[in-house]
Amino acid sequence: MLCASVLTLFPEMFPGPLAASLAGRARARGLWSLQTVNIRDFAGDRHRTVDDTPFGGGPGMVMRPDVIDAAFAAVADDRPRIFLTPRGRPFTQSHAQRYAAGPGLILLCGRYEGVDQRVIDAWDCEEISVGDYVLSGGELPALVVLDAVIRLLPGVMGDADSAVEESFAESLLEYPHYTRPADWQGRRVPDVLVSGNHAAVAAWRRAEAERLTAERRPDLWAAYRARHAAAPVASVPAAP
Ligand code: 9D3
């Protein structure tokens, strides 16, 4: 059983979409559990204050370290602690694989301008972002991380996705998919896919995956080219 705890000012945002579909069924089957912790419950004053103005000045408010500390203290165990923040390292499939292989995770969702850095450091949190765009808090990113982790848990997916993929599948964008009808509103499925020639289908899919990756993801394309290079490119002279 993977145990997820989420520290947030908006516990009503959970489980949200994770109540439906694959993740929802997996939770009903006891493959993972969810605990939400309302950070406001750990405020020390009558007004349940969780934030204050930033030292040094500047816009917005900062979440107080003593409040977050009390919330962590209530749930912390051997699980990794993750702070969702736009300043974090980009979340990747390797993070998801690592978390899925462990006992669970404790996710801290920030609001306002941010969280006092001392409590992030004191609790040794991994700082993670889900991409270069601005959201209003860490809650949607936490749901993204949880979804990516949950689908990797043993027994959550059928065999469909666990089937071994072609060797290039991990590093390239996916090829386009088609199903019946073979002619839809005058748009025909590529002939090769209905040819019955499995080698030709595989070659077409690989070519399409490479074309799309080169067009849309120069970063992935460069890494793929580097990995699949038979030898270093000779046209770049070595430094003297
Ligand atoms: C002007 C400075 N802003 C940083 C870009 C402040 C700021 C904006 C939005 C601070 C926090 C937030 C709320 N976002 C998150 O908490 C967040 C997030 C995101 O906005 N994008 C991608 N990944 C993440 S993880 C947490």
List the helices and strands and how they pair.
Elements: E1 2-8, H1 21-28, E2 32-38, E3 51-52, E4 62-63, H2 65-75, E5 81-90, H3 93-100, E6 104-109, E7 114-115, H4 117-122, E8 126-129, H5 139-150, E9 183-184, E10 187-188, H6 198-216, H7 218-228
Parallel strand pairs: 1-2, 1-6, 4-7, 5-6, 5-8
Antiparallel strand pairs: 3-4, 9-10
Helix pairs in contact: 3-5, 6-7
Bound molecules: ligand 9D3.
Describe the structure.
This protein is of the alpha/beta class and 240 residues long. The chain folds into 2 domains: 2-150, SPOUT methyltransferase, trefoil knot domain (Alpha/beta knot, 3-Layer(aba) Sandwich), CATH 3.40.1280.10; 165-227, Trp Operon Repressor, Chain A (Orthogonal Bundle). The chain has 7 helices and 10 strands. The strands form 3 sheets. The protein has a 5-stranded parallel β-sheet with strand order 2-1-6-5-8, with helices on both faces. Helix 6 packs across helix 7. The longest helix has 19 residues, at 198-216. The protein is elongated, with a radius of gyration of 23 Å. The model has no long low-confidence stretch (mean pLDDT 94). The structure holds ligand 9D3. Ligand 9D3 binds next to strand 5.
